[in-house]
Amino acid sequence: MSRAPVIVEARLNEYTLRERNPHVPFSPEEIASAAADCAEAGAAVVHFHARDPESGAPSHDAAVYADAIRRIRAAAPGLIAVPTLGATEIPDSVARCAHVLALARDPRTRPELAPLDLSSIDVDAYDARRGFLVDALVYQNPLRGLRGQIEALRGAGVRPEAVLWSIGSARRLGALLERGELEEPLFCELLVSDLLLSTAPASVRGLLSLCEFLPRGRRLPWVALASGGSALHLIPAAVEQGGGIALGLGDWAYPELGTPTNAAVVAEAARLVRASGSRPATASEARELLGLAKA
């Protein structure tokens, strides 16, 4: 029996540079072009970071985000565009929302979703050949800060997208839902990684450990995300569990596909979703699942 359609999210660039794959988009023009191609390949959601067009350095300029969002919406009407919140680049939880709040003042650039990272975590990237790559960075998300983010986003008309880095994240999600501080339907990303030791490993077993602790009886459409590695092998298990997939050149260069574009990665993910008995949700179907207005 064919399963219900699932969300495919394209993660276009993160803070990734071009040494491993030259197709990582930097400028608003490149981001919008990649987003439109990913929509054509099967993505209903795109996540992006604003970047300096030349160097690729992180940018937190609301004007750069606004330019990218306007271009994405012109190139791919209906596609759900999700800007980042700055993550470890901006220590203060509420300050991470500043560009999103600025974007929300104009309906033409107001994001419909923005990430909400539900736990503090040691950024303890480790490679067996090179050892620890980071040893002094903690991504801080205290509960008070998260509540500030939630209220700021709610006041701006932007819905949170919950990012679960650990089982503790899933338990915190349950508590916030019980208290009515987060509302359903709530889009969730289940993050696993072989690079970050503080997360569940990027294996089927690691993903299922997070699935086990998702709050039951809630409307929580979700996607699996592998940070620092391929997410393709997770697709059959994610679909089996009723979830989708989030992947792109921001997380991994996908050398197993050659030197692919983001759209080529999405196309392979869409193929595997279909092979698993489902299909990628259209942008319209994703909007209905996530409780977003029709485009």
At the first level of CATH, the class is Alpha Beta
End-to-end Cα distance: 30 Å
Inertia-based shape:
globular
CA gyration radius, whole angstroms: 17 Å
- pLDDT averaged residue by residue: 95
Q: Describe the oligomeric state of these chains in a short phrase.
A: single chain
Uncertain runs: none
Number of strands: 12
Annotation field: number of helices: 9
Portion in beta strands: 15-25%
CATH names the topology as TIM Barrel
Main sheet attributes: strand count, strand direction, barrel closure? 8 strands, parallel
Question: What's the structural domain tally?
Answer: 1
Structural overview:
The chain is α/β, with parallel strands linked by helices. It has a single domain, classed as Alpha-Beta Barrel (TIM Barrel). 33% of the residues lie in helices and 15% in strands. The chain has helices at residues 28-41, 62-75, 98-104, 143-156, 167-178, 204-212, 235-240, 262-275, 283-290; strands at 8-11, 45-48, 80-83, 113-117, 121-122, 126-127, 131-132, 138-139, 159-164, 188-192, 222-226, 244-247. Strand 10, helix 6 (204-212) and strand 11 (222-226) form a beta-alpha-beta unit. Helix 1 runs parallel beside helix 2, helix 1 (28-41) runs parallel beside helix 8 (262-275) and helix 2 (62-75) packs across helix 3 (98-104). The mean pLDDT is 95.
